[in-house]
Amino acid sequence: MPSTFHSIETAKRSLFTQTAALNTTGHNIANANTEGYTRQTVKMRASIPMEAYGINRSNVPGQLGTGVEFDAIERIREKFLDSQYRGENTELGSWTIRSNTLDKLQQIMNEPSDTGIRKVLDNFYKSWSDLSKDPESVTARTIVKENALALTDAMNHMSKQLSNLSADLTSNVEAKSSELQSYVNSIADLNQSITKIEGLGDNANDLRDQRDLIVDKISKIVNVTVTDTDQGYNVNMGGQALVAGFTPTTGINGAYLQAAFGSNDLQGGEVHGMIISRDQFVADYTAQMDNLANTLANGNVSVTLPKGSVLPEGTVLNGVTYTGTTRTLQSDLTVTVKGLNGLHQLGYTQESKDVNGNMVAGKPFFVTSGTGGGTITAGNITLNTVIVDNPNAIAASLRVTGTAPTEELVKGNNTLASLMANLKLNNFTSVSTGNTATIDSFFSSMVGQLGIEAQEATRQTQNATALVSQVETMRQSVSGVSLDEEMSNMIKFQHAYSAAARFMTTFDQLLDKLINSTGVVGR
User: Fold this and answer.
1) Nearest CA to 471 among 88, 40, 210, 75?
2) Which residues pair with 232 in a beta bridge?
3) Is the peptide bond before 112 cis (omega within 30 degrees of 0)?
4) Among 25, 53, 75, 436, which residue is least crowded by beta carbons within 10 Å?
5) Tens of pLDDT along 24-40?
6) Per residue, what are the HEC states of 251-311?
7) Overall pTM surpassing 0.70 (yes/no)
8) Pick from 292, 299, 285: nearest CA to 442
């Protein structure tokens, strides 16, 4: 038989349950705009009925219900969507960095423009053409010198910008490693707190939200997989554990992530994009610029020396040494010289004669900066200081008259200056790759490659952004807070609470009648 106060207890359970539901609704509404928050719901169920199966059960027909109760407050979340989101977020992180780096490289190249390397090269060749029109002009020689300095300065500056970009990417890897270490430590701490709370039978919903949000942020930095265990999340990057229950991995730094990239454990995320950007994109264009500078200065190039040209004493071309009377070419001679430097050393300057009375041959036009010498690169290429100090050291002529010690420069001869100007159209053999093309073509190829890579990175970034947005929309449709829905729930729970309170009041009146008014007739 039910207790006399059975209905009071039923109403009380309803009031408690609807209050919990209203409180949870208010919590959802308050966190509608909180990053990483997952909407929560109260799991209601009918409480155990009055009459259980047994030999002494009441003969009263039916099982009298005892009202409602809730056994948990749960998050509404799908692990599949979380996993899908993190995978797409990892791709987005990597492609975003790559796209940004390639955009910066395009700004460094600054092509096509009126201030880029191509324009400086055109001005350099044009100055040689102008010198060929007046080879005796000090002004024309000075213009050649200044355009050469502008060319080397442009290459030096571009090389420095590429070096700075590489250094920035390295420092960013270090910064991201510190951020990753902080996140890893936080997850281990949250694992411990969640395990303690849930060991008491409660759901640590808000702490779980914090942990999932941190994992989402980690997925933007590196690729991760997550396994939920009795001790919380185990977070792995490829085959390397970042978090194992309550234990975080320590010592995460740039070297750690670089090693993970080398072992193929690091396959995505912003750090992955940074390392690819630095070690592939920036390194490749740095190498191409170095090759361009060295090829211009020393790359094999075929030129035709006109009949009557007089080579400097002791010159070796095509395996033949030219000396004495053989220095004067009896016919056109096609030879391969070592770039602009090699060609410049075949001509004569307006300087004084050497100790033997021969005219002074041209010096190497481009050299390395400093005193170390070595291979010419975009970072160290510079104009020979002899030419910087004296533009008359620029060789423009291939003709002399007489013999030592009475040898004299043929005034007004422009043969070498014309050959220099025509190098714009000549094919050079790349010092590093062996490919053959004009200097302009080498540079155009580099610019074209950069444009295609940047376009592809932009496309991939846009695709990844769309996929992340799509998955996030699906996640929000499941886990996000809808204010309209919460308002509807609030009204529903409010009415349920009011009805339960009214039921309690009604039964209180019945009990009052029973207790205080029954059996008073005839007193």
Assistant:
1) 88
2) 229
3) yes
4) 53
5) 999 999 999 999 999 99
6) CCCHHHHHHHHHCCCCCCCHHHHHHHHHHHHHHHHHHHHHHHHHHHHHCEEEEEECCCCEC
7) yes
8) 292
